Amino acid sequence: MVNVIITGLYTPGKPSSPRIVSVTNQSVTLEWTSPDSDGGLHISGYVIIYGSPAAPKALYSREMVKGPTTTTTLTEKLSPGRTYQFAVGAINKAGLGEFSDFSLSLAFPGEDGEYILAV
Questions:
Q1: Cα(76)–Cα(25) distance, rounded to whole angstroms?
Q2: What does each C-alpha distance from 103 to 91, 94, 98 come to in angstroms?
Q3: Burial class, 88, CB count within 10 angstroms (exposed 0-12 / middle 13-18 / buried 19+)
Q4: Are strands 116-118 and 83-92 parallel, antiparallel or unpaired?
Q5: Which residues contact 60 (CB under 8 A, 6 or more apart)?
Q6: Is 110 or 28 the better-scoring residue by pLDDT?
Q7: Which of 3, 7, 32, 47 sits at a 20 to 30 Å CA gap from 59?
Q8: Once rounded to an integer, what is the mean pLDDT over residues 27-38?
Q9: d(Cα 41, Cα 60) in Å, to the nearest integer?
């Protein structure tokens, strides 16, 4: 009798919440940590979602970040006067894993012309 062990291949785990590294008048640079688990398959890239905290998540914009070791991205063409939050999910051949927790909210720009991070 031969014992055969079959291991499953799964979507990646949850990356860390994206951290806002820098901000310009219409863009933000985000940084995150790869998930602890790649699901048994190499991570091929990431998906960033972003939108207003008050909007339904189905209306959030999506942006693909290619490369298994890329854990930073520049998100551009953000609208002045709007507030955004960001989350990231890892992708492998099994599919898209669970999204991270959302970042702090970012208001473009504040009343005094500065950008405001809110909890």
A1: 9
A2: 19, 26, 15
A3: buried
A4: unpaired
A5: 49, 50, 51
A6: 28
A7: 32
A8: 94
A9: 27
> Each residue of 35-77: pLDDT tens digit?
999 999 999 999 999 999 999 988 999 999 988 888 999 999 8
What are the phi and psi torsion angles at 58 (to 5°)? -65, -20
Residue 5: what pLDDT?
A: 47
pTM confidence score: 0.85
Q: Which residue has the tokens 């809110």?
A: 118
Ordered by where they begin, the domains of the chain are: 19-112 (2.60.40.10)
Structure tokens of 90?
């890892």
Q: How far is CA 27 from CA 21, 72, 108, in A?
A: 11, 13, 9
Strands 45-51 and 83-92: what pairing? antiparallel
Vertex 43 angle, CA 96 and 98, to 5°: 30
Instruction: Classify residue 59 as exposed, middle or buried by CB count within 10 Å of its CB (0-12, 13-18, 19+).
Output: exposed
Question: Which pair of structure tokens corresponds to residue 75?
Answer: 């998100």
